[in-house]
Amino acid sequence: MAPSRSSRTSLQSVDLRALDYLASPSANLLCPICHSPLITPVQTRCLHTFCSACISLSLERSLTCPVDRKDLSHDDVTPAPIMITNLVNDLVVLCPNRERGCGASCARWLVESHVREDCGYALVKCAKDGCDGMVERKDVEEECVHEEVGCQFCELSVRRLDLDSHHRECPKLSSECPHCAESFLNPDLSIHIADCPAEIIDCPASHFGCPYTSPRSDIDAHTSNCHFVALTPILQLHTERITTLELENRTIRQKLELLTPPRPLPTPSSSTTISSSSNPPANDGSSTNRDMTSEMQDYTYHLYSEYEQLRADVERLNAQIRELDVKQDMARINEGLRYNDEMTGMRAAMNGLRMQLHWLVASRRETGAGSGGAGGGASRSVAGGSAGDGRRMSDSVRQVMKL
Amino acid sequence: MAAVKRVAKELAELDSQPINGVSVGASDSDILKWNIVMTGPPDTPYAGGIFTLVLELPPEYPFKAPSLRFTTKIYHPNVSNDDKGAMCLGILRSDTWKPASRIRQVLEHAAALLKEPNIDDAVETAIAEQYKNNHEDFVKTAKDWTRKNAK
């Protein structure tokens, strides 16, 4: 059978780009376009190296070098020095059939022939004429594995290829129980395993600390005089109480944190380690709870910081308003003072005008009473009046005051 | 197909050697669409903010440039102030993009722009003007937006 196996060539094609390399290759050997080790390397006029396929694709879109954007045509691309080609071809790759189980690795230039001729996991055509099925090279047999054959135990028919896996679950076949080594029909096995008397199980109070283990059949004898089992109801009660108290404690702590001024994260980690060391069984149950509360804690912190920020904002605004108030008050007082000054000034001016009026009226009367035909005198007195105005006015003021 | 392999490689590389303040992940269904989270650099108006971006790679990648847009609203001269949130990056323009450019470079440029906007190449000219002439107001608005949108 061996010669027929090896003579069978695989039609499976190898995508060199999809290969995995044993060691990550030097960055100098990577194509700048596909970032894989160069495949059929070529070199441009500007001395950059690419995979032949990559640079063709690139030139289809733009006639520039993908690295320095210099003008480039198809004629400027020549095969890279043979040394570079050898370097990349010598890189060690893993067989592309690795997922199916082939552990081979070889130089890249050999991988195609490995898959075509050697690899036991490469898919080859089925041995039987007329069958189009594919089969891994190691499984090639004289008979076709794609033919349906009847299971010799049940009436199902399966492909010869799948016969082994079918036998593991055929309902007419029996398998051994891993605990008691007794054989059961496949459908009944799982039912049996669930309560096999030979299975080694823990004491029902094991989570309270009882180290006893025994086959299921003997466990009853133990539980009837196990101290832990006797104490189970009380221990259970205590565990529940501790859990509720812990929960309560946590919410209270959160409230406290919310009400006290912020400080760097309190130490929930230390408190939980204390609680977990003092009470290991409750620990498992509350771990999801703790996740939730820590999430809530984050949330409350977030709310708290928001609140703090808003408070600071409001305080700042208040201060600003107060400042503005003071400023406005000052402005108003200043304005008032100015108006007062102005008013006294006006009043003084008005008084002055009144005096002047009085003086003028008085002088008119005087001239009217003194001499009737002295028109020139009157005009002179007016002209003279404008010159000695100040003094005379003050005189007249005095006169009026006296009056 | 070649694009997918290269993109997967670049993603793995960014995963093992992340850029400071930038975390990346492909969306579940599509490796050509990346979700990116950037944290606002300290000493900028964006400090403390968490910005999400989407990087979309064309099927022709790396022969065509990817596109980068903010899905978190941000007040920035180089990010369009609309629903698209497109980021204007020199390296992404079709006349400067080259197949040898990497996503890593794109993200590094974007992170640098958060630190220091490029005023001469702004999409939002009004914001750029404000950045130049009225820096205090710019910082104030940018901080406001960060607080409102990027927490």
Write a structural description.
Chain B: It comes from Orbilia ellipsospora. Chain B: This is E2 ubiquitin-conjugating enzyme. Chain B: Keywords: ATP-binding, Nucleotide-binding, Transferase, Ubl conjugation pathway. Chain A is flat, with a radius of gyration of 54 Å. Among the domains of chain A are: 16-140, Zinc/RING finger domain, C3HC4 (zinc finger) (Herpes Virus-1), CATH 3.30.40.10; 149-194, Herpes Virus-1, CATH 3.30.40.10; 203-257, no CATH class. With 403 residues, chain A is mostly helical. A three-stranded antiparallel sheet of chain A has the order 2-1-3. A two-stranded antiparallel ribbon of chain A has the order 4-5. A two-stranded antiparallel sheet of chain A has the order 6-7. Chain A has twelve helices and 13 strands. The longest helix of chain A has 91 residues, at 280-370. In chain A, strand 8 and strand 9 (157-159) form a beta hairpin. Chain B has a single domain, classed as Roll (Ubiquitin Conjugating Enzyme). Chain B is an alpha+beta fold. In chain B, 34% of the residues lie in helices and 15% in strands. Chain B is globular and about 50 Å long. In chain B, helix 3 (125-133) crosses helix 4. In chain B, strands 1-2-3-4 form a four-stranded antiparallel sheet. Chain B starts with a helix and ends with a helix.
Summarize the structure.
Chain A is mainly α. Chain A is built from twelve helices and 13 strands.
